[in-house]
Amino acid sequence: MAVLIGLLKIAFCFVLIISIHELGHAIAAILCGVKVKRFSIGIGPGLKIKNVPILNELIISPIFLGGYVMLDEEALTQKSLLKKLFVYVSGMLSNVLLAILLLVILGANFFKAVFVSFTIWLGGWPIFIAILMKGNVRPEDSVSGPIGIGQMLVGDSMPYLLTVAFISLAIAMFNVLPLPPLDGGRILMAFLEKFLGNQRAAKINRVLQIVGIILLLSLLVFATFNDVVKISK
């Protein structure tokens, strides 16, 4: 029973955070006049529900470690730079707002919750890099993969909702990185298309896609290996 409850906790966390993130993109796109073609909760094959209001096609997959929203990319490319940025930023912003809500539910002061959440989102990487450069924390001690995150969610080191809030902020912070297919990468491409033109930006994007995928997969492997090492100690 405890295992089942633990799995439900993990599933709820990922479904909530990812759905909120993708819903943020979807709502922003609709506000900018861009059609949502498909909204997926989870990844891989799953239950398809068509003719869903606003979302058009909804997919619910049992593989809950992911999700996505499919937009009318052709329509989006024709929008202004500000509208593109609004669509790309809204996923991260939704995660930040979720974290603020959870912190307030847990009793945190609203203004402190806002300050902490936005500081982690926008200043998390500079702070993290500064700490690493000082040598106070080793990279392997500060990186957790899926296994480590699951342990945090089912453990009792801190309240469950607080863990969900910080994971939501971590997702927002992670997406700041200017690497496709992350939101930060799409923001970078929007600027490159604006100032370099679509053709030159497309060439750069192809290179960044490869680099981004390699780096993200490497980070996932490192984090997962790190989790296994921690468990085995």
UniProtKB/TrEMBL annotation:
Protein's UniProt keywords contain Protease: yes
Pfam families associated with the record: Peptidase_M50
Keywords: Hydrolase, Membrane, Metalloprotease, Protease, Transmembrane, Transmembrane helix, Zinc
Spans traversing the lipid bilayer: 6-34, 54-71, 86-106, 113-133, 160-179, 207-225
Location relative to the cell: Membrane
GO MF annotations, alphabetized: metalloendopeptidase activity
The keyword Transmembrane helix belongs to this UniProt entry's keyword annotation: yes
Similarity comment text for this entry: Belongs to the peptidase M50B family.
Protein name: Peptidase M50 domain-containing protein
Source organism of the structure: Candidatus Harrisonbacteria bacterium RIFCSPLOWO2_01_FULL_44_18
